[in-house]
Request: fold
Amino acid sequence: MEYKQLGDSDLLVSEICLGTMTYGQQNTVEESAQQLDFATDRGVNFIDTAEMYPVPAKPETQGKTEEYIGAWLVKQQRDKVILATKIAGRSSRLKWIREGKNQIDRPNVETALNDSLKRLQTDYIDLYQIHWPDRYVPLFGAPDYDIAQEHETVPILEQLEVFADLIKAGKIRYLGLSNETPWGVCEFCNLAEKHGLPKVVSIQNAFSLSNRTFHLNLAETCRFKNVGLMAYSPLGFGLLTGKYLQGIPENSRLALFAGFGQRYDKTNLNDAVQAYVEIAAKYNLSPAQMALAYVRSRPFVTSTIIGATSLEQLEENIGSLDVNLDREIVAEINAVHAKYPNPTP
Reply:
């Protein structure tokens, strides 16, 4: 396991980050603890969660993921774990989170953070992230930017001022973004520098063989602003493992939660996945490990977020650290990408 500095923070995070959005829905508290033990025993020191988890989001389960992690965390040496969680952004669909009034303003941020601290049984969060922007941006595979959907938003400067106070109070160490755009990253960084406020150190965005849009503009933005990428969905919701090529397996996420994979129900995806699976077979690699190795190999990726519902899946995913892709394999991957560019943006 290698450890990398997250942006310009002093956090040295494992190149694999354990994602936890199945805890409380597909995984019990006992299974969650087993996964956490397994991952940390293998050098993972970086855990990511969110106040809205587990997924799919429901009022009766919201917060359970943090509760499960808290039950495990209280038994650990706290300074050995780098813990990241997220405040839900503005959303009309999550009416059970603070009665749907979930703007990124002072009352909501303070309430969300204190509730997360209580569930996680800790007195500080290493990395506190805005799950998605308070302002309108196209999200989760939505098409082009639509000016008609713009709405009133909490000014970014005001958001930064709230987080600055919480960092001063010792409740947060660093601030991160998620599902952000190049403009958003620049605005957060520029305002922080101008006003002497805490700078964001990370961004958590989707990046995978089937979604390489980060390469286009965000890679440059994050390089020059020194913002580290935590790549989520590196297996494209599991599709890049190839397990869905012959249909939807019983008890898989797409089988259990109909409609949840809309972001991945796109033209050319199966053709692209089939081509990637064939490359993996040619080089005696598992498709999952090849996909994860590709993400890990990108210079702008600080940590790759993996998730699993079983220890077998988790072991395979962590085992991708032993896979290094040579130029020949990457060239074949790029040829597929050229034919089927970004089927799941």
Observations:
- The two ends are 29 Å apart (CA to CA).
- The longest strand covers residues 172-178.
